[in-house]
Amino acid sequence: MPADSSAARVLATPRVLTLLAIALVSRTVVAVLPITLLVSLAQPYGYGRAAVINGTMVLVLAVLGPLRGRVLDRVGQRRALVVMGIAAMTLMSLVAVSVAARWPWWSSLLLVIAAALTSPPLNAALRTSWRRVVQGEQQLKLVHSADSVLEEIGFVLAPLAAGLALVALPPRHAYELCVAVYVLVITAYLIIAKRHGLGEKPSPATEESARPPSASRRRQRWLGPLSEPAMLMIIAPLLVMGCVFGGIGILVPAYTQHLSAMSWMGPLLAMISIGGVVGGIVYGTLRWNSDLWSKYRILAIGFALPACLLFTARPLWLLALLLVLSGLFVTPVFINAFLLVDHTIDEGMRHEANIWVGASTDVANGIIAIVIGALVAKADFNSALTVLSSCAAVGLAIALIWGYLARRGAAHDQPGTPAATGPAPQPAQSQPSHTTP
Questions:
Q1: What segment(s) does the record annotate as region Disordered (predicted)?
Q2: pTM over 0.85
Protein backbone atom coordinates (compact mmCIF):
# COMPACT_ATOMS: atom_id res chain seq x y z
CA MET A 1 0.00 0.00 0.00
CA PRO A 2 1.48 3.39 -0.97
CA ALA A 3 2.46 5.63 1.89
CA ASP A 4 0.28 8.47 0.52
CA SER A 5 -3.01 6.55 0.54
CA SER A 6 -6.07 8.49 1.65
CA ALA A 7 -7.07 8.34 5.29
CA ALA A 8 -10.26 6.42 4.53
CA ARG A 9 -8.38 3.81 2.52
CA VAL A 10 -5.78 3.25 5.22
CA LEU A 11 -8.30 3.01 8.05
CA ALA A 12 -10.55 0.72 5.99
CA THR A 13 -7.77 -1.82 5.54
CA PRO A 14 -9.05 -5.03 7.18
CA ARG A 15 -5.92 -5.37 9.32
CA VAL A 16 -6.13 -1.79 10.65
CA LEU A 17 -9.90 -1.90 11.05
CA THR A 18 -9.78 -5.14 13.03
CA LEU A 19 -7.08 -3.88 15.40
CA LEU A 20 -8.85 -0.55 15.97
CA ALA A 21 -12.09 -2.37 16.71
CA ILE A 22 -10.53 -4.72 19.28
CA ALA A 23 -8.74 -1.73 20.83
CA LEU A 24 -12.00 0.20 21.27
CA VAL A 25 -13.83 -2.78 22.75
CA SER A 26 -10.98 -3.74 25.10
CA ARG A 27 -10.52 -0.20 26.45
CA THR A 28 -14.25 0.23 26.99
CA VAL A 29 -14.53 -3.08 28.85
CA VAL A 30 -11.46 -2.34 30.99
CA ALA A 31 -12.94 1.08 31.87
CA VAL A 32 -16.33 -0.45 32.75
CA LEU A 33 -14.85 -3.06 35.11
CA PRO A 34 -13.89 -0.66 37.98
CA ILE A 35 -17.34 0.97 37.93
CA THR A 36 -19.29 -2.28 38.12
CA LEU A 37 -16.77 -3.71 40.59
CA LEU A 38 -17.26 -0.75 42.95
CA VAL A 39 -21.04 -1.08 42.99
CA SER A 40 -21.02 -4.88 43.29
CA LEU A 41 -18.52 -4.78 46.16
CA ALA A 42 -20.56 -2.13 47.97
CA GLN A 43 -23.44 -4.55 48.54
CA PRO A 44 -21.63 -7.11 50.75
CA TYR A 45 -18.84 -4.88 52.08
CA GLY A 46 -20.13 -1.29 52.09
CA TYR A 47 -18.79 1.63 50.04
CA GLY A 48 -15.86 2.27 52.39
CA ARG A 49 -14.22 -1.11 51.83
CA ALA A 50 -15.40 -1.22 48.23
CA ALA A 51 -13.59 2.08 47.56
CA VAL A 52 -10.40 0.72 49.14
CA ILE A 53 -10.50 -2.40 46.94
CA ASN A 54 -11.41 -0.48 43.78
CA GLY A 55 -8.88 2.29 44.42
CA THR A 56 -6.13 -0.23 45.07
CA MET A 57 -6.77 -1.86 41.72
CA VAL A 58 -6.56 1.47 39.88
CA LEU A 59 -3.40 2.45 41.77
CA VAL A 60 -1.64 -0.85 41.05
CA LEU A 61 -2.56 -0.62 37.37
CA ALA A 62 -1.13 2.90 37.16
CA VAL A 63 2.01 2.60 39.27
CA LEU A 64 3.11 -0.88 38.19
CA GLY A 65 1.98 -0.56 34.58
CA PRO A 66 5.48 0.28 33.30
CA LEU A 67 6.87 -2.86 34.96
CA ARG A 68 4.33 -4.96 33.09
CA GLY A 69 5.49 -3.25 29.91
CA ARG A 70 9.08 -4.11 30.79
CA VAL A 71 8.07 -7.77 30.96
CA LEU A 72 6.83 -7.52 27.37
CA ASP A 73 10.10 -5.87 26.30
CA ARG A 74 12.25 -8.52 27.97
CA VAL A 75 10.24 -11.68 27.26
CA GLY A 76 8.51 -10.76 24.03
CA GLN A 77 4.97 -9.49 23.51
CA ARG A 78 3.37 -12.68 22.24
CA ARG A 79 4.64 -15.04 24.93
CA ALA A 80 4.11 -12.57 27.80
CA LEU A 81 0.57 -11.62 26.77
CA VAL A 82 -0.54 -15.24 26.64
CA VAL A 83 0.72 -15.94 30.18
CA MET A 84 -0.51 -12.62 31.60
CA GLY A 85 -3.85 -12.91 29.82
CA ILE A 86 -4.57 -16.39 31.21
CA ALA A 87 -3.57 -15.29 34.72
CA ALA A 88 -5.66 -12.09 34.59
CA MET A 89 -8.74 -13.87 33.22
CA THR A 90 -8.51 -16.50 35.96
CA LEU A 91 -8.02 -13.97 38.76
CA MET A 92 -10.79 -11.63 37.59
CA SER A 93 -13.15 -14.61 37.47
CA LEU A 94 -12.14 -15.47 41.03
CA VAL A 95 -12.92 -11.90 42.10
CA ALA A 96 -16.44 -12.37 40.73
CA VAL A 97 -16.71 -15.65 42.64
CA SER A 98 -15.52 -13.98 45.85
CA VAL A 99 -18.20 -11.31 45.57
CA ALA A 100 -20.95 -13.81 44.79
CA ALA A 101 -19.89 -16.14 47.64
CA ARG A 102 -19.36 -13.20 50.05
CA TRP A 103 -15.83 -14.19 50.95
CA PRO A 104 -14.04 -11.94 53.49
CA TRP A 105 -13.40 -8.52 51.95
CA TRP A 106 -9.62 -8.87 52.25
CA SER A 107 -9.71 -11.96 50.01
CA SER A 108 -11.34 -9.88 47.26
CA LEU A 109 -8.67 -7.22 47.83
CA LEU A 110 -5.84 -9.75 47.39
CA LEU A 111 -7.43 -11.18 44.25
CA VAL A 112 -7.92 -7.69 42.79
CA ILE A 113 -4.27 -6.80 43.46
CA ALA A 114 -3.12 -10.04 41.80
CA ALA A 115 -5.40 -9.42 38.81
CA ALA A 116 -4.06 -5.88 38.42
CA LEU A 117 -0.46 -7.11 38.62
CA THR A 118 -1.03 -9.61 35.80
CA SER A 119 -3.36 -7.48 33.66
CA PRO A 120 -1.97 -7.60 30.09
CA PRO A 121 -1.03 -4.13 28.78
CA LEU A 122 -2.98 -4.41 25.52
CA ASN A 123 -2.74 -0.67 24.75
CA ALA A 124 1.05 -0.66 24.80
CA ALA A 125 1.18 -3.91 22.84
CA LEU A 126 -0.98 -2.46 20.08
CA ARG A 127 0.75 0.91 19.90
CA THR A 128 4.14 -0.73 19.71
CA SER A 129 2.91 -2.84 16.81
CA TRP A 130 1.45 -0.11 14.59
CA ARG A 131 4.73 0.41 12.73
CA ARG A 132 4.54 -3.21 11.57
CA VAL A 133 0.97 -2.75 10.36
CA VAL A 134 1.28 0.38 8.17
CA GLN A 135 3.87 1.92 5.89
CA GLY A 136 5.39 5.38 6.15
CA GLU A 137 5.29 8.15 8.72
CA GLN A 138 2.02 9.67 7.44
CA GLN A 139 0.16 6.39 7.82
CA LEU A 140 1.75 5.87 11.23
CA LYS A 141 0.49 9.28 12.35
CA LEU A 142 -2.95 8.48 10.96
CA VAL A 143 -3.41 5.19 12.82
CA HIS A 144 -2.04 6.65 16.07
CA SER A 145 -4.52 9.52 15.65
CA ALA A 146 -7.45 7.17 15.05
CA ASP A 147 -6.30 5.01 17.97
CA SER A 148 -6.19 7.98 20.36
CA VAL A 149 -9.55 9.36 19.20
CA LEU A 150 -11.14 5.95 19.78
CA GLU A 151 -9.59 5.91 23.25
CA GLU A 152 -11.34 9.19 24.07
CA ILE A 153 -14.59 7.78 22.68
CA GLY A 154 -14.11 4.78 24.96
CA PHE A 155 -13.98 7.13 27.96
CA VAL A 156 -17.41 8.40 26.93
CA LEU A 157 -18.87 4.95 26.21
CA ALA A 158 -17.63 3.24 29.40
CA PRO A 159 -19.79 5.14 31.93
CA LEU A 160 -22.81 4.75 29.65
CA ALA A 161 -22.23 1.01 29.29
CA ALA A 162 -21.68 0.60 33.04
CA GLY A 163 -24.85 2.54 33.82
CA LEU A 164 -26.85 0.45 31.37
CA ALA A 165 -25.54 -2.80 32.83
CA LEU A 166 -26.31 -1.69 36.39
CA VAL A 167 -29.83 -0.62 35.43
CA ALA A 168 -30.58 -3.84 33.54
CA LEU A 169 -28.98 -6.26 36.03
CA PRO A 170 -28.28 -6.52 39.75
CA PRO A 171 -24.78 -5.16 40.52
CA ARG A 172 -23.23 -8.59 41.10
CA HIS A 173 -24.53 -9.93 37.78
CA ALA A 174 -23.51 -6.75 35.97
CA TYR A 175 -19.94 -7.26 37.16
CA GLU A 176 -20.03 -10.95 36.21
CA LEU A 177 -21.19 -9.98 32.72
CA CYS A 178 -18.29 -7.51 32.41
CA VAL A 179 -15.81 -10.17 33.52
CA ALA A 180 -17.20 -12.57 30.91
CA VAL A 181 -16.81 -9.93 28.19
CA TYR A 182 -13.28 -9.17 29.48
CA VAL A 183 -12.34 -12.84 29.05
CA LEU A 184 -13.73 -12.85 25.50
CA VAL A 185 -11.91 -9.61 24.60
CA ILE A 186 -8.49 -10.81 25.80
CA THR A 187 -8.96 -14.12 23.98
CA ALA A 188 -9.98 -12.30 20.80
CA TYR A 189 -6.98 -9.96 21.01
CA LEU A 190 -4.54 -12.85 21.36
CA ILE A 191 -6.08 -14.62 18.37
CA ILE A 192 -6.06 -11.46 16.23
CA ALA A 193 -2.47 -10.62 17.23
CA LYS A 194 -1.29 -14.08 16.21
CA ARG A 195 -3.22 -13.96 12.94
CA HIS A 196 -1.65 -10.63 11.97
CA GLY A 197 1.85 -11.55 13.12
CA LEU A 198 2.07 -8.94 15.87
CA GLY A 199 4.31 -9.13 18.89
CA GLU A 200 7.29 -10.87 17.34
CA LYS A 201 10.44 -10.32 19.36
CA PRO A 202 13.31 -8.59 17.47
CA SER A 203 15.91 -10.97 16.12
CA PRO A 204 19.08 -11.51 18.20
CA ALA A 205 21.12 -9.74 15.52
CA THR A 206 18.90 -6.67 15.72
CA GLU A 207 19.03 -6.63 19.51
CA GLU A 208 22.81 -6.91 19.49
CA SER A 209 23.23 -4.05 17.01
CA ALA A 210 20.92 -1.84 19.09
CA ARG A 211 22.61 -2.62 22.39
CA PRO A 212 23.87 0.58 24.08
CA PRO A 213 27.22 0.96 25.86
CA SER A 214 27.66 -0.77 29.21
CA ALA A 215 27.02 2.41 31.26
CA SER A 216 23.75 3.00 29.43
CA ARG A 217 22.78 -0.64 29.90
CA ARG A 218 23.15 -0.30 33.66
CA ARG A 219 20.89 2.76 33.68
CA GLN A 220 18.36 1.07 31.41
CA ARG A 221 18.32 -2.04 33.62
CA TRP A 222 16.98 0.00 36.53
CA LEU A 223 15.22 2.96 34.93
CA GLY A 224 14.14 1.53 31.58
CA PRO A 225 13.12 4.28 29.12
CA LEU A 226 13.28 6.89 31.92
CA SER A 227 17.05 6.68 31.54
CA GLU A 228 16.65 8.45 28.17
CA PRO A 229 16.46 12.30 28.11
CA ALA A 230 13.95 12.06 25.27
CA MET A 231 11.52 10.10 27.45
CA LEU A 232 11.74 12.67 30.23
CA MET A 233 10.88 15.42 27.75
CA ILE A 234 7.95 13.37 26.47
CA ILE A 235 6.36 12.86 29.88
CA ALA A 236 6.88 16.44 31.17
CA PRO A 237 3.71 17.89 29.50
CA LEU A 238 1.80 14.72 30.41
CA LEU A 239 2.46 15.27 34.11
CA VAL A 240 0.89 18.72 33.83
CA MET A 241 -2.11 17.28 32.00
CA GLY A 242 -2.49 14.63 34.71
CA CYS A 243 -2.58 17.34 37.38
CA VAL A 244 -5.43 19.12 35.59
CA PHE A 245 -7.32 15.85 34.99
CA GLY A 246 -7.05 14.79 38.63
CA GLY A 247 -8.02 18.19 39.99
CA ILE A 248 -11.01 18.61 37.71
CA GLY A 249 -12.27 15.13 38.57
CA ILE A 250 -12.52 16.13 42.23
CA LEU A 251 -13.38 19.80 41.84
CA VAL A 252 -16.34 19.52 39.46
CA PRO A 253 -18.56 17.18 41.54
CA ALA A 254 -17.87 19.15 44.72
CA TYR A 255 -18.29 22.56 43.10
CA THR A 256 -21.53 21.71 41.27
CA GLN A 257 -22.97 20.25 44.47
CA HIS A 258 -21.91 23.39 46.38
CA LEU A 259 -23.79 25.53 43.84
CA SER A 260 -26.79 23.14 43.78
CA ALA A 261 -26.19 22.71 40.05
CA MET A 262 -25.70 18.95 39.79
CA SER A 263 -27.09 18.96 36.25
CA TRP A 264 -23.80 20.62 35.20
CA MET A 265 -21.61 17.86 36.63
CA GLY A 266 -21.82 15.35 33.77
CA PRO A 267 -21.37 17.89 30.95
CA LEU A 268 -18.45 19.55 32.75
CA LEU A 269 -16.66 16.24 33.32
CA ALA A 270 -17.19 15.38 29.64
CA MET A 271 -15.83 18.68 28.29
CA ILE A 272 -12.18 17.60 28.13
CA SER A 273 -13.05 14.33 26.38
CA ILE A 274 -15.39 16.10 23.94
CA GLY A 275 -12.64 18.55 23.08
CA GLY A 276 -10.19 15.64 22.82
CA VAL A 277 -12.32 13.83 20.24
CA VAL A 278 -12.72 16.97 18.10
CA GLY A 279 -9.06 17.93 18.39
CA GLY A 280 -7.89 14.40 17.63
CA ILE A 281 -9.96 14.19 14.46
CA VAL A 282 -8.71 17.56 13.25
CA TYR A 283 -5.09 16.79 14.08
CA GLY A 284 -5.25 13.34 12.48
CA THR A 285 -6.30 14.78 9.12
CA LEU A 286 -4.15 17.94 9.30
CA ARG A 287 -0.95 18.19 7.29
CA TRP A 288 1.37 20.19 9.55
CA ASN A 289 4.83 20.67 8.11
CA SER A 290 6.98 20.70 11.21
CA ASP A 291 9.06 18.21 13.16
CA LEU A 292 7.52 16.16 15.97
CA TRP A 293 9.32 17.94 18.81
CA SER A 294 8.22 21.40 17.64
CA LYS A 295 4.63 20.24 17.28
CA TYR A 296 4.75 18.64 20.72
CA ARG A 297 5.84 21.92 22.32
CA ILE A 298 3.15 23.92 20.52
CA LEU A 299 0.43 21.43 21.46
CA ALA A 300 1.55 21.47 25.09
CA ILE A 301 1.31 25.28 25.06
CA GLY A 302 -2.15 25.03 23.49
CA PHE A 303 -3.34 22.83 26.37
CA ALA A 304 -1.73 24.93 29.09
CA LEU A 305 -2.90 28.40 27.98
CA PRO A 306 -6.66 27.97 28.68
CA ALA A 307 -5.89 25.94 31.82
CA CYS A 308 -3.82 28.86 33.16
CA LEU A 309 -7.08 30.85 33.34
CA LEU A 310 -8.91 28.32 35.51
CA PHE A 311 -8.51 30.61 38.53
CA THR A 312 -11.10 32.90 36.89
CA ALA A 313 -13.61 30.10 36.25
CA ARG A 314 -16.11 30.68 39.03
CA PRO A 315 -19.04 30.79 36.54
CA LEU A 316 -19.78 27.26 35.35
CA TRP A 317 -20.11 28.34 31.72
CA LEU A 318 -16.56 29.76 31.80
CA LEU A 319 -15.24 26.58 33.41
CA ALA A 320 -16.89 24.55 30.63
CA LEU A 321 -15.38 26.81 27.95
CA LEU A 322 -11.85 26.61 29.35
CA LEU A 323 -12.05 22.83 29.74
CA VAL A 324 -13.20 22.24 26.18
CA LEU A 325 -10.50 24.60 24.83
CA SER A 326 -7.79 22.74 26.72
CA GLY A 327 -9.38 19.45 25.72
CA LEU A 328 -8.89 20.26 22.02
CA PHE A 329 -5.16 19.65 22.54
CA VAL A 330 -5.34 16.56 24.77
CA THR A 331 -5.62 13.88 22.11
CA PRO A 332 -3.09 15.56 19.77
CA VAL A 333 -0.60 15.70 22.68
CA PHE A 334 -1.06 11.98 23.27
CA ILE A 335 -0.79 11.22 19.55
CA ASN A 336 2.50 13.09 19.35
CA ALA A 337 3.75 11.44 22.54
CA PHE A 338 3.18 7.97 21.09
CA LEU A 339 4.79 8.99 17.79
CA LEU A 340 7.84 10.33 19.64
CA VAL A 341 8.11 7.10 21.62
CA ASP A 342 7.96 5.15 18.37
CA HIS A 343 10.61 7.35 16.80
CA THR A 344 13.08 8.08 19.60
CA ILE A 345 12.94 5.18 22.07
CA ASP A 346 14.84 1.99 21.39
CA GLU A 347 12.63 -0.89 20.23
CA GLY A 348 13.65 -2.99 23.23
CA MET A 349 11.99 -0.48 25.61
CA ARG A 350 8.94 0.69 23.67
CA HIS A 351 6.28 -1.30 25.52
CA GLU A 352 7.36 0.21 28.83
CA ALA A 353 7.74 3.66 27.25
CA ASN A 354 4.21 3.55 25.80
CA ILE A 355 2.81 2.65 29.21
CA TRP A 356 4.71 5.54 30.81
CA VAL A 357 2.78 7.92 28.53
CA GLY A 358 -0.45 7.02 30.31
CA ALA A 359 1.05 6.17 33.70
CA SER A 360 2.67 9.60 34.04
CA THR A 361 -0.74 11.29 33.81
CA ASP A 362 -2.25 8.78 36.24
CA VAL A 363 0.44 9.34 38.87
CA ALA A 364 0.10 13.13 38.67
CA ASN A 365 -3.68 12.67 38.65
CA GLY A 366 -3.63 10.79 41.94
CA ILE A 367 -1.30 13.23 43.70
CA ILE A 368 -3.17 16.40 42.74
CA ALA A 369 -6.54 14.76 43.47
CA ILE A 370 -5.50 14.47 47.12
CA VAL A 371 -4.50 18.16 47.25
CA ILE A 372 -7.69 19.38 45.57
CA GLY A 373 -9.77 17.04 47.72
CA ALA A 374 -8.37 18.64 50.88
CA LEU A 375 -9.22 22.11 49.55
CA VAL A 376 -12.77 21.39 48.39
CA ALA A 377 -13.48 19.64 51.70
CA LYS A 378 -13.13 23.14 53.21
CA ALA A 379 -15.18 24.63 50.35
CA ASP A 380 -12.06 26.60 49.34
CA PHE A 381 -12.79 26.52 45.62
CA ASN A 382 -10.78 29.65 44.85
CA SER A 383 -7.60 28.02 46.12
CA ALA A 384 -8.40 24.80 44.28
CA LEU A 385 -8.79 26.63 40.96
CA THR A 386 -5.61 28.60 41.66
CA VAL A 387 -3.65 25.39 42.27
CA LEU A 388 -4.82 24.00 38.92
CA SER A 389 -3.92 27.26 37.17
CA SER A 390 -0.49 27.15 38.79
CA CYS A 391 0.11 23.61 37.53
CA ALA A 392 -0.81 24.72 34.01
CA ALA A 393 1.46 27.78 34.34
CA VAL A 394 4.39 25.52 35.24
CA GLY A 395 3.70 23.44 32.13
CA LEU A 396 3.51 26.58 30.00
CA ALA A 397 6.82 27.84 31.41
CA ILE A 398 8.52 24.50 30.70
CA ALA A 399 7.29 24.51 27.09
CA LEU A 400 8.39 28.13 26.51
CA ILE A 401 11.84 27.56 28.04
CA TRP A 402 12.20 24.36 26.02
CA GLY A 403 11.34 26.29 22.83
CA TYR A 404 13.83 29.03 23.70
CA LEU A 405 16.63 26.54 24.28
CA ALA A 406 15.77 24.74 21.03
CA ARG A 407 15.96 27.99 19.04
CA ARG A 408 19.19 28.94 20.75
CA GLY A 409 20.67 25.54 19.95
CA ALA A 410 19.57 25.88 16.33
CA ALA A 411 21.31 29.26 16.09
CA HIS A 412 24.62 27.65 17.09
CA ASP A 413 24.32 24.80 14.59
CA GLN A 414 26.83 24.78 11.77
CA PRO A 415 25.51 25.55 8.26
CA GLY A 416 23.79 22.54 6.80
CA THR A 417 23.23 20.88 10.18
CA PRO A 418 19.61 20.14 11.16
CA ALA A 419 18.25 22.28 13.98
CA ALA A 420 18.30 20.68 17.40
CA THR A 421 14.58 20.82 18.20
CA GLY A 422 14.54 18.05 20.76
CA PRO A 423 16.53 15.23 22.28
CA ALA A 424 18.42 13.36 19.62
CA PRO A 425 17.19 9.90 18.59
CA GLN A 426 19.15 6.93 19.86
CA PRO A 427 22.12 6.31 17.56
CA ALA A 428 21.63 2.57 17.74
CA GLN A 429 17.98 2.72 16.74
CA SER A 430 17.20 0.68 13.68
CA GLN A 431 14.18 2.76 12.59
CA PRO A 432 14.52 5.17 9.67
CA SER A 433 15.02 8.88 10.31
CA HIS A 434 11.89 10.89 10.92
CA THR A 435 10.31 12.69 8.05
CA THR A 436 7.63 15.28 8.67
CA PRO A 437 4.17 13.72 8.41
A1: 200-219, 413-437
A2: no
